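Annex B. Sample input.
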Amino acid sequence: MAINTHLKIKNQPRSTEATHYQVIEKLKETSMELSLIHCGQEQCEALHFVQAKRDELILHFVFNGKGSLSVGEKHWNISAGQMFLMYPGTVYTYIADAKTPWSYAWIGFKGALADTILLHCGLSAKNPVGNFGEIETIKAYFNELLQTRGISFADDLKRHGILLNLFSYLAQTHAENSGITNSYQYSSNIYVNHAIEYISSFYANNITVASISEHVGVTRAHLNNCFQKEIGLSVQTFLIEYRLHQGARLLTATTDSVNKIAESVGYHDPLAFSKAFKKKFGKSPKFYRNDAIITPQS
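Annex B, continued. Sample output.
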């Protein structure tokens, strides 16, 4: 017997639950950008056959077994670990294998961002089949969705968040499998400004180019390219100069020792601070402070 559990999001909330059947349906769409319309999972019987044309996008995830998908004259054999996409307004036919019928889960969704999201997951009308990564990870997302059965605004938000997390995982998996380091980029000055904000807040700590890049969310190479483009310096050089300029400010604004100032700007070795400072300003921290003292005129 096929086990069928699904969620539907439409209008006028209604919830029903039985041993082999769970449904939340007629819930309003929560966003023009991306909305979950329904979702579910099913253990299909041999040769379980579906031929349908839908009003929303539907994405299936095969957990076990295998089957096939057809649209027009195109045909795909699909097995566990693969997903297949159905576009609205098109007739799709999919059938479970006779010997090892598949079990799958699905989401039905729509919204202005749907096509962009799918593109970053490696899917399109011309390429409706792809790999989705770890089966257990996808199962966990569906378990969360199917357990969120409430019809409150808070439940709407939770389902929307789970949907976004699911697509984030698919996009990240596709990028890693395709060797894409950053397929969706902001302008370089945004990355540079974000990095500078981080440096200005944490320069006194043991931050590195790697930790800065990780915080910004891009590779070290890409962040360095952005810095070179925007300000003509590498990230490492900018970090060093920022610390040294902060040190110079403290030398003239306080009476703190050189050792204390070195530590306060991220140098745990005072000698390394003094060497870098002299290289930058042409004089040691001590002489820099002395030369900055202005003798009052009589």
